[in-house]
Each structure stands twice: as structure tokens, then as C-alpha cells.
Amino acid sequence: MEKSPNQITEDLLRPLLRTSPKYYFAVALLAAVVVVAFAAFGYQAYSGLGVSGLRRPVFWGFYITNFVFWIGISHAGTLISAILRLANATWRRPVTRCAEVITVFALSIGAMFPVIHLGRPWLAFWLIPYPSERQIWPNFRSPLVWDFFAINTYLIGSVAFLTLPILPDWALVRDKASGWRKRVYGFLSLGWRGTPRQWSRLESAMHIMAIVIIPVAVSVHTIVSWDFAMAPVPMWHSTIFGPYFVAGAIFSGIAALILAMACLRKFLHLEDYLKPLHFDNLGKLLLMMSLLWFYFVFAERLTTWYGNEPSEMAVFWTTQQGAYAPLFWTMVFCNFLLPFPILAIKRLRTITGTVIASTAVVAGMWLERFLIIVPSLSHKFLPYNWGTYRPTWVEITIMVGTFAGMALLYALFAKAVPIISIWELKLGLHEKSEVRSQETEGRGKLAFGGQEKLET
Amino acid sequence: MKLSTKKRPLYGLIAEFDNPDDLLAAAHRAHAEGYRRMDAFTPLPVEGLAEAVGFVSTRLPLVVLIGGLCGCIGGFLLQYYPNVMDYPLNIGGKPLDSWPAFIPVTFELTILGAALFAVFGMLAMNGLPTPYHPVFNAPRFELASRNRFFLCIKARDPRFDLEKTRQFMTGLKAREVSEVEV
């Protein structure tokens, strides 16, 4: 049964205007975890990096794993949404905003990790090129500086891409709400009136943003991969890393999007908007990325094995059958062996099925990032320099804190902004009814007008 | 209908419609009638409405191109100036102007410039933020973001005449025609 435009307004504004005690409880719980994580970071900043598990030779541990992981998750949104917009996939409408939000928050969290990882995090601003009394500039030939520019461009672009289509929805909330909400949303909506000129420019800006954001998203994870590939470390120094990282990022991003949509559907009662169709379609995308990911892992392993470089083979065997083998085979299970049958068999590609597969993929992709970083660093060229890595409670707390932080930010966002773009949904209905009325000569037109029940 | 007794100047007349098709038809008729200074307010983009109220095309793409070029040139100079002119430093025997290494940052800043110009260009050309606008005084205008479609003929229009225009607008399938004060 299709919803009427008024029903859409009512359903999607409900979370903004009504809040249950359970919501406050959940937010308080998540905020508490985040506060603990910040305290752990404060402890580390005060005492020094020695309280973490980072030791010679493994100086990149959980922090950089989480950095790569979260930047990867951020490819859910902007990239998928931009591609679906440009391809004009009509089923995209309820999905795009949920996805774009993931990008903005996952990217903010990911970008924090290099700073957490610094011995003196208060000097992070040295990455910004500006004429200073120090008289030195960042080394622009270093991928770490490229990272700074790529991630910030991606973040600013994603915020813009997310905010542009929110403007008319904020205007809707402004006109519907009363009291302090009216004032806040009146301020946020900037006096949007919905004139044809405004719509035309807004749609034009959205279209341009969708085009320019795709190469940025691809470049971001490519540059992250160059942080590794440009270093002469066994199994890092590889030309495959760029596409390998991007494929993995999109893979984990789609999985994160499916999980976020399942949570929204359950907690905000959006069963009529986020339908099995959306999970089915995203499940197919996930299946495709799972195959692609498996191909890349296979290609990476095959070329290493065939090349038979002794220093690389040391890393190779430690992941295949040595100390890291349990993690490696768990990763293969989570990223391929489990999701592949679930997603390939149509009967299993249900909401529950895709959620199970996505949970496995998120865990598997985290392991992948870990397995790229730690085994290589702990088995560098000379055996006297071999070592191991064990995270301390500080790293684990901060990592758990980022997951809670993601959930917290998402929950707060869903309270402040309609999580599904209302006007785009109405536009979709309108376009569909236009087509239908052409077929049936005027019958079956969409009925605007009428009154809503929900008042505030 | 009784005329307003207050002496405030008039911004225009606004008509409320139930659906986009009636609004579009009304805009076309108003245009045919010779009205040029009019505007519409809709909760979703209506195809063909921009042309109907006399809006040809947006120059936003040009603005974005300029933004992208600024970002591109600025981004390259941002790296060229410190490395070649301000503080030449031999790093690994590479030439000072090792431009291939400058491409990633140049590319990112090109996109950043384009994106910022797209967003702020859109806002500026749309006159946003608009803290006050007369149409917000129109009765029931809060429905313009929800489920009603409004057409406003401005008093500035040379053909505007309160009584005649009101009569014309009432005959347009409008639910209601009302005055908007400045």
C-alpha cells in the first residue's frame, strides 16, 4: 500500500517531535561510553604513548587499523548515494540520506585516529600549511599530507552533499513545529521558500556535488592505501593496494549501511519506507563487492607467493598458517564464506539474512585492516627486528568508544533531521503518479492537499 | 471580499492550489495574460514551473567551474611556493619543483573549490539566508512546504491591478486568493 504525501510527512517527522524515555536512556548509555573513551585518550595524552601497546617494531596498531576501517565505512554513504543519484535509481530515495550520514560521522571518527595516534596530539595543526614562525612547511611529497587534504576535502564535500537536500526538509519542520523548535529550524532552513528558481539551483548544485564527490571518495582511500604502498615494508609495497583498499572500503560501507538501515527500520518504525526491496538490492551490491574483495585478496596472495621474495614470504606464511592464521581464516570466513551463500541464494537474501551477512562483513573488514598492518610491521626484513603486538585497555577502550560514538551521533542526528528525505520521497511519488496517469488517462493521480492528523 | 483597511504597501496577491498541475496551468495562463513578475512556492520541484514563471537556466555550473579553477591553481601554488620559493629544501635528491607529487593535493583542492562554490554559490544566487520575506505573512503559507502549491503575482508587475488581478486569479481553480503585505 502506497503512502499519501501527508502520511509521509507525519511518519517521518514523528521522531523529531516525539521522544520516548528509552531514547534518553540509550543516548545516556552511549554518551557514558564515549566519555570513558575520551578519559582513556586524556590518560594517554597525559602519560604518553607508552600506555598503549605500541612498541618497537609495531608502531601502527589498533589506532591505524581503526583509522583505515572507519574511513572505509565512510564510503558507504556519499559514494553509494552519489552513484545511485546519477544512475537515477528510483529505489534510492529512502536510502540516500541514511547513507550520507554514515559518511559524515564515520569520516569524522576516522580522521580523529591519526591525532589520537600522535605522541603530542596538540601539535596536529602542524599539518596545516600556513606561514608560521617555525618557518617550515609540511612535506607535500608525503602521502600523509595528501591524506590530510583528501580527508578534509571529502569531509567538507560530504557535509555539503548531506546538507543541501536537507534544506527543504528543515523548512518543512519549521512550518510544522511550534515554540523553540520553530525558531531553531527557522534559523537552520535559512528562509527557504521553495520557489522554482531555488529548486532549480538546488537540484543543479546537488547534481554537481554528486559528480565531484565520486572521484574524491575514490581518491581518499587510494591515498590512504599509499600511506602503506609507498613504504618499503614487506607486503605493503604493492601496486594492487589502491583498488584493493577502495574495493574493501565500499564493501564494508555497504555492510554498515545495511546495519544502519535495519536499526532505523526497527527503532523508528520505518517498515513502510525501508522495505525488503532495499535490503535485497543492497544485498546484491554486497554480494558483488564480496566477490570482488575475494578476487583482490586472492590476487594479492598469489602474486606474493609467486614472487617468492623471502621477506614477503615470512609475512605471507605467518598469516596463512602462523600466529595470525586464526585471524586470517576468520576474515575469509566473515567476508566471503559466510556472506556469499547468504547473499547469493535469493531465499536467504532477506532482511535478517543481509543483516547477518553485513555484521560478518563489518567484523571481517576490521580484521582485514588489522592483518594488513600488524603482520607486516612485526615481520620486517631482519629477524632480529621481529616482534609482536598486544593492545592495552587504552586502545580497546578508545576503539569501543568510537563504535558507541558512531551510534550516538547517528541517534542524535535522527532526532534533529528527518532521516529520510521527505521532499524527495514526495517527488518520487509525484513522478510515479504522473507516469501512471499518462497510462490510465488521468486516473490514479496523486492526491495532495487534505489535512494531517499529527499536530504539535 | 473586504479590502484591507491598513495602509501597509502591498507585495502582491497569492493564490493557493491543491496540486502541482493546477499551479502549472495557472502559471502558464498568468504568463499568457502578460504577467511577468510572479513567483511560485512548492513543497517539491515541479517540472516546467521554472520556465513557466520565466526562469531560463541557472549559471551555477559556471560558478562551480570558476571555483574549481581557483582551487586547482591555488592548490598548486600552495605547494609550489613553499617548496620552490619560500624554503627550498632538498628532500631525497628530488627536484624542487617535483610537480607529479603535487598532483594529489592539487586535485583535492580543485574539488574542494568546486564544492564550496557550488554550495555557497547556490545559497548566494538563491538569496539565502533570507531572514524576512513578505510571503511568510501570507495566510496558510506554512503549507507551502507540505502539501499546497502557491502562486504569487507581485504588485511590482506593470499589469498588476488589485481588482482585475484578483478576479483573474480567482478564476484559476485556486482554493483561495489573498493579499500579501510587505
Could you please describe the fold and organization of this structure?
The complex is a heterodimer of chains A (456) and B (182). Chain A has 456 residues and is an all-alpha fold. Chain A has one domain (5-128, 147-430): Formate dehydrogenase/DMSO reductase fold, CATH 1.20.1630. Helices cover 70% and strands 0% of the residues of chain A. Chain A is built from 17 helices and no strands. In chain A, helix 2 runs antiparallel to helix 16 (393-416), helix 5 packs antiparallel against helix 16 and helix 10 packs antiparallel against helix 11 (276-307). Chain A is globular. With 182 residues, chain B is of the alpha+beta class. Chain B is 42% helix and 13% strand. Chain B is built from five helices and four strands. Chain B has helices spanning 20-33, 49-52, 60-86, 103-125, 162-170, and strands at 10-17, 38-41, 149-154, 176-181. In chain B, strands 2-3-1-4 form a four-stranded antiparallel beta sheet.
Task: Provide a short characterization of the protein structure.
With 456 residues, chain A is mainly alpha-helical. Chain A has helices spanning 5-17, 21-47, 62-73, 77-86, 96-116, 143-163, 166-176, 180-188, 196-229, 241-267, 276-307, 310-320, 325-337, 339-344, 351-378, 393-416, 422-439.
Per-chain topology:
The complex is a heterodimer of chains A (about 450) and B (about 180).
Chain A: H1 5-17, H2 21-47, H3 62-73, H4 77-86, H5 96-116, H6 143-163, H7 166-176, H8 180-188, H9 196-229, H10 241-267, H11 276-307, H12 310-320, H13 325-337, H14 339-344, H15 351-378, H16 393-416, H17 422-439
Helix pairs in contact in A: 1-17, 2-16, 3-5, 3-10, 3-15, 4-5, 4-9, 5-6, 5-16, 6-9, 7-8, 9-10, 10-11, 10-15, 12-13, 12-15, 13-15
Chain B: E1 10-17, H1 20-33, E2 38-41, H2 49-52, H3 60-86, H4 103-125, E3 149-154, H5 162-170, E4 176-181
Helix pairs in contact in B: 3-4
